[in-house]
Structures are given as C-alpha cells and as structure tokens.
Amino acid sequence: MSWQENIITNIKPSTAIRHDYNSFSKLCHDTQAPVVVTKNGEADLVVMSHEAYQKMMARQRLGQMLSEVDREIAAGTPMRDFEETFAAIKKRIENE
Question: What does this protein do (predicted)?
C-alpha cells in the first residue's frame, strides 16, 4: 500500500498529539505515511516522520530531475556518453 492510499485512513484529532504523543509518533513511524490532524472536525495539519519526509523529498527531487531530462531530450539537447559519465562518477566516488 502506498503512502498516498494511507492519507485517507490516517486521520487523527489534534487531541491525539496532546494526550498521547508517543502513540501518535509511533503511528507516523510505523506507517511511514502522512497523518492528517484535525481541529474542530476540519483538516488542519499533515504530520509525518522525518524519515518519510526525507524519502518524499528525494522522490520529488528525482521527479524534477527526470522531468528536466525529458525536456532536454524533447528539445534535442545532446546527451552525455554513458561510459564517460559513469567514469566521471566513479572517479568522484573514489576521490571522496
């Protein structure tokens, strides 16, 4: 099940944080999904574990990079040679 499917099922009132932070935190870590926090019955905040947030941001950055490459390909921008690129990456890793 993806985290997007969990958005609907992980809805908690704001009192869940105030009254039992540890259980709320455990839910965020165990599900690795955003939790919608409600205030007066209305959606107010979205909370997630730091790890889930980092993964989400990494997916977003990767998507942005892939979109940029797609635009470059569509524009006819010459691509780098795979072997040269791989050799450059390997050299950078070895020098770190």
Answer: Antitoxin component of a type II toxin-antitoxin (TA) system.
Q: 3-48, which class in CATH?
A: alpha beta
Considering the entire predicted model, what is its pTM?
0.68
Q: Domain spans of the chain?
A: 3-48, 52-95
65 three-class SS:
helix
Burial of 32 (0-12, 13-18, 19+ CB in 10 A): middle
3-state SS string for 39-73: ECCEEEEEECCHHHHHHHHHHHHHHHHHHHHHHHH
With beta carbons less than 8 A apart as the criterion, state whether 62 and 69 touch: no
Backbone angles phi, psi at 26, to 5 degrees: -60, -40
